[in-house]
Design a protein that fits this description.
The protein is α+β, with helices and mostly antiparallel strands. It has a single domain, classed as Hotdog Thioesterase (Thiol Ester Dehydrase, Chain A), CATH 3.10.129. The protein is built from one helix and five strands. The chain has one helix at residues 26-45, and strands at 9-11, 49-59, 68-78, 82-93, 98-111. Strands 1-3-4-5-2 form a five-stranded antiparallel sheet, covered by helices on one side. A hairpin with a 4-residue loop joins strand 4 (82-93) and strand 5 (98-111). It starts with 8 loop residues before the first strand and ends in a 14-residue tail after the last strand. The structure holds Palmitoyl-CoA. Keywords: Hydrolase. One of its GO terms (biological process) is acyl-CoA metabolic process. It holds the Pfam family 4HBT.
């Protein structure tokens, strides 16, 4: 990922998001990544988008209860109707003293028209 800008989301998991290992469910973090990627894809496409594929996803380190999660996302590739968004999640813990990269993924979104069919992306700014 290039120089990190501001996170798209900052969020804390709750007690109901814990799995039997005592870590945070992968599905919880995937959904935060999907929301953040969707926000970036919506900005780029200037409208509605749907996730069509998760091209890659790596769980690098566990997320712990009381971590603060920052979700960073940026456009990595653009097609006619689709945008691939690189999404990185960083956990802040130990009262803000420690930052750990916990996941990395490449999600592809498709811009949708009113009929929920692929829509051409607007020209890049
Ligand atoms: C100013 C306004 C601001 C707005 C600010 C909004 C903010 C908003 C925030 C909230 C944001 C929430 C974000 C929710 C995100 C979900 O949770 S969406 C829910 C889960 N996803 C779905 O239900 C989608 C289900 N799938 C579909 O409906 C259809 O597959 C789709 C998406 C309409 C695509 O239809 P299709 O017939 O497969 O289309 P097709 O023409 O074959 O392919 C279209 C493009 O997708 C690519 N593609 C297709 N399959 C793949 C694949 N497996 N891998 C990679 N690329 C693929 C194609 O290569 C093509 O790319 P281009 O060459 O055109 O660039």
């Amino acid at each position: 990922m290039p120089q990190r800008s501001d996170p798209i989301l900052r969020v804390t998991p709750g007690p109901s998001d814990i799995n039997s290992n005592g870590h945070i469910f992968g599905g919880w973090v995937l959904s935060q990544m999907d929301i953040a990627g969707g926000i970036v894809a919506g900005r780029v496409s200037q409208g509605a988008c749907a996730t069509v594929a998760i091209e890659s996803m790596t769980f690098i380190a566990p997320i712990l209860l009381r971590d603060i999660i920052s979700v960073y996302a940026h456009e990595e590739r653009r097609g006619k109707t689709s945008i691939a968004i690189r999404i990185e999640v960083v956990a802040t813990r130990a009262r803000g003293q420690q930052e750990v990269k916990v996941t990395d993924g490449l999600f592809t979104f498709v811009a949708l028209d009113e009929d929920h069919r692929p829509r051409l992306l607007p020209p890049a700014l």
